[in-house]
Amino acid sequence: MRGLNYTFAETADAAVTQFAEAGGSARYIAGGTNIYDLMKLGIERPAHLIDVSRIEGLDAIETDGDVLRFGGRALMADVARAPVVRDEYPVLAESLLKAASQQLRNMATVGGNLLQRTRCMYFRNGAGSSTTVGVYLCNKREPGSGCAALGGLDRTQAVLGTSEACTAVAPGDWPVALAAMDATIEVFGPEGTRNIPIADFYLLPGDTPHREFNINPGELVTAITVRKTPAGRTSTYHKIRDRESYAFALASAAVAVEMDGDAVRTARIALGGVATTPWRASAAERVVVGSSLTPELALEAGHAAFTEARPGQHNAFKVELGARVIADALIIAAQRRV
Ligand SMILES: Cc1cc2nc3c(=O)[nH]c(=O)nc-3n(C[C@H](O)[C@H](O)[C@H](O)COP(=O)(O)OP(=O)(O)OC[C@H]3O[C@@H](n4cnc5c(N)ncnc54)[C@H](O)[C@@H]3O)c2cc1C
């Protein structure tokens, strides 16, 4: 039996101080829907959990001038049903409502969602918990040990952003919508506050797949901000999965467009379920901007997003599926113009 210290932080300052005092073996816990899972699997073994779910003000959902601001411990369910999100930013609301289950969304926070770990089965199985025997090699779990997904069952693995060391998919839906909306992540730590563009928040696996987030030990996600844009209303999050609820994406697309009649003035497209990070599909955006949107052009844009895809043995279907998800999402978003 290993001991575990569990404390509550009432302020962001207190959380950061407690983390520093714990000396490297601490983890923050918010809703606990991911970290408890990882502790049971033997992947996370903290000696100290610092509960941030009571920090005052960190659950606020606010409009500040032309910026939407979501506190780091705001619940997924609360953000999804906030009127400004539901009515003006369907891409954000839908990415949350299509994630997990209502019960989970009532517990889980938008900050925790950003930092959840991959669902790669080789990562999750093999750490040698109390109920499993360590068998699968995983460079993300144990740097330098190897990757059992390469040449293994790779149906759900990534086709974009992969490396020789790792093909694990970035799991979250919300970060994909945030990538399309060019969100900023505000973190607070021993050195003060940093604002990190979401494009810089997630790290490609390269040969260091254990480094997933551009965040330092002890830094707390205090807020997520999204700049308001007219494209917010003409947006959607389209997600394809093995079953219609309670499942991670096989392929998903967050799309927001500004239309001028049938012509696309601006486009923001990001992909989930197919890449090692929330994936901005700039090549697809370039195909549609300035042109009339037709189903054929939408599919051409979808295909453009996958020109650099590197499928494995069982996941080549994601290339065509992902292209079609983008195409459908573009049409759905454009139909929302008033
Ligand atoms: C059955 C199941 C199905 C799911 N399906 C989906 C799905 O379809 N789509 C999807 O997107 N997600 C899905 N999820 C994942 C779920 O959305 C995440 O577990 C949840 O969002 C994590 O939030 P949390 O507050 O519970 O995080 P926690 O479990 O508390 O923490 C997760 C990680 O974030 C860190 N952390 C938490 N808050 C902060 C903070 N403020 N600052 C710094 N670090 C912090 C913790 O230290 C930990 O490392 C599913 C989960 C389950 C169990």
From TrEMBL:
| Pfam families linked to this entry | CO_deh_flav_C (PF03450), FAD_binding_5 (PF00941)
Q: Does the keyword Flavoprotein apply?
A: yes
Q: Where is the FAD-binding PCMH-type domain?
A: 1-231
The protein's name in its UniProt record? Xanthine dehydrogenase family protein subunit M
Q: Which organism is it from?
A: Chelativorans salis
Stored PROSITE patterns: FAD_PCMH
* Signal sequence range: none
Q: Which PANTHER family match?
A: OXIDOREDUCTASE, XANTHINE DEHYDROGENASE SUBUNIT C-RELATED
Q: Matching InterPro entries, A to Z?
A: CO_DH_flav_C (IPR005107), CO_DH_flav_C_dom_sf (IPR036683), Diverse_Substr_Oxidored (IPR051312), FAD-bd_PCMH (IPR016166), FAD-bd_PCMH-like_sf (IPR036318), FAD-bd_PCMH_sub1 (IPR016167), FAD-bd_PCMH_sub2 (IPR016169), Mopterin_DH_FAD-bd (IPR002346)
Alphabetic keyword roster? FAD, Flavoprotein
> Where does the source fall among the domains of life?
Bacteria
